[in-house]
Amino acid sequence: MWYSLCDRYGLYVVDEANIETHGMVPMNRLSDDPTWLPAMSQRVTRMVQRDRNHPCIIIWSLGNESGHGANHDALYRWIKSQDPSRPVQYEGGGANTAATDIICPMYARVDQDQPFPAVPKWSIKKWLSMPGEQRPLILCEYAHAMGNSLGGYAKYWQAFRQYPRLQGGFVWDWVDQSLIKYDDKGNPWSAYGGDFGDTPNDRQFCMDGLVFADRTPHPSLFEAKHAQQFFQFVLLPDEPRKIEVTSEYLFRHSDNEILHWSIAQDGKPLAAGEVTLDIAPQGSQVIILPQVSLPTDAGQLWLTVRVEQPQATAWADAGHISAWQQWPLEQRLNIDFPPCVSQAPQLTTNGDTFDVALGNKRWAFCRKQGVLIQYWIGDQAQLLSPLIDQFTRAPLDNDIGVSEVTRIDPNAWVERWKAAGHYCAEATLLQCEAEALSGAVLITTAHVWQYQGEALFVSRKTYRIDGYGKMQISVDVDIARGTPNPARIGLSCQLALVAERVNWLGLGPHENYPDRLTSACFDRWDLPLEEMYTPYVFPSENGLRCETHELCYGSHRWQGNFQFNISRYSQKQLMETSHRHLLQPETGTWLNIDGFHMGIGGDDSWSPSVSPEYLLNAPRYHYQLIWC
């Protein structure tokens, strides 16, 4: 049935023999033993004879993770004698053997070599340029989509489009393979390795899909769809504005596609239009946009295009968006000269606190701790915990890798952070001063974050509260030499409020991270609070939204250029809980606002895979935001 569906829908298939010797030592122990040739031959010959008339099958594969042996060479020769029209691929032996027509490595990276002693994995770009190498490269597995993953996926597709011999790959994998169990009350929950009394086990390594077990999408699915979309767009540097649209359809003329364009400022529509696409296979069309009078006031201006299929197809409903792209447009510099106000905040010193008051707002800064410990609007306290620095995250699967309690991998990010003391560092106050200015109050603090006497971070902050009741927070963080790159540089607090919805101007609507945000669209978004949390079966850091310029939650508003996540679960609870059904909503709402956040990686999930450009490896960072 699967092959027939692929024939119908036009999906290319690599048909792989059901052969694997993973676990044998050495791995090719069976594949190099002639007594196993008949068993291997039966599986290969039956596959070819059964499936050879399916047009969807374009490549034969000799199997998976079986090393390389003489049996593979014999089976390769047999297939070529029976079907010389199709190439044969096999990854074992590093894809550099006589048993494959294609370089088909697992988890090779775009730009980084992995010089393992037995079978090196070169970067996919380098592999193409090896002396005498003329074969195409197709990754038989890549982009390990385990939990909050698929960071850097767009880099692969940039390379695939740039180099014709880089011809794609197979994401590992499609669906989480957790299973349903039931608790004592009959409530279902998702189980993984170890939940069935099975030892040894591979924990949550069965959950590495683009969709959950119930087939609802992971956020990573949107990233994969956007990277692989069949239309590419270039905003040309001409006037009037022109967009070049290129079709990556190999055979079909664009006969069911309408391009919709729109220009918006801060999420408010200004102009829109549509054009019917008329593009030959692998051809291009230049769309000339009409002149649009843009506003003269400051604001975030974005041009967005979407390709819609107005007619239903065999695989999509009418109105399906098959591709989209977005560009920031030139905009006026935001020079804010607010009018003078007659009132100014009042600063008083009351024992252990600096208190600032303006109208119905009050702020209390602890002089011994150097932190904002409370904020009142009227008689309502807004904080359940102080506003403090945050440098850690509940570890992702990619942060943990293969590290376990009884078998620690010191190279895993989480183990580096633990060993350096990131999770249990304590702050020592260096400075806490308050000053009444003309029309504002300035609080200045400095802390050193230490673990076992070693300095990890120095954080300097200024809080400027003005006559409008706005608090501008400026933060400078120095990172000690030799300290592992932190997961984030930001602030965290527990708000007393639990509001129904979250509104923000930034990238969305789904979760996005610095190395997984090409599928996120800049707009004004509004979602229920519970949808700001991504329900990964194995709890971890989740729900970040990047490039946020404004966040509104209840009566609170934050402005700047930051990343945030907001939910009923603290990072501590996420880190200490093994399954999502065990999470308990906490009092209030946890808010994390980051000036900077490390990438999530995903080239694989057993080694540190965040690309260098997405690591927080600078010695100093600065960010600021306004809390209105």
UniProtKB/TrEMBL annotation:
Residues 355-628 form the Beta galactosidase small chain/ domain. It comes from the Bacteria. Coiled coil: none annotated. Keywords: Glycosidase, Hydrolase, Sodium. It holds the Pfam family Glyco_hydro_2_C. SUPFAM superfamilies: (Trans)glycosidases, beta-Galactosidase/glucuronidase domain, Galactose mutarotase-like. One of its GO terms (biological process) is lactose catabolic process. Its cofactor is Na(+). One of its GO terms (molecular function) is beta-galactosidase activity. GO terms for cellular component: beta-galactosidase complex. It catalyses: Hydrolysis of terminal non-reducing beta-D-galactose residues in beta-D-galactosides. Its EC number is 3.2.1.23. InterPro entries: B-gal_small/dom_5 (IPR004199), Bact_Beta-galactosidase (IPR050347), Beta-gal/glucu_dom_sf (IPR036156), Gal_mutarotase_sf_dom (IPR011013), GH (IPR017853), GH-type_carb-bd (IPR014718), Glyco_hydro_2 (IPR006101), Glyco_hydro_2_AS (IPR023232). Belongs to the glycosyl hydrolase 2 family. This is Beta-galactosidase. It comes from Budvicia aquatica. The gene is lacZ_3.
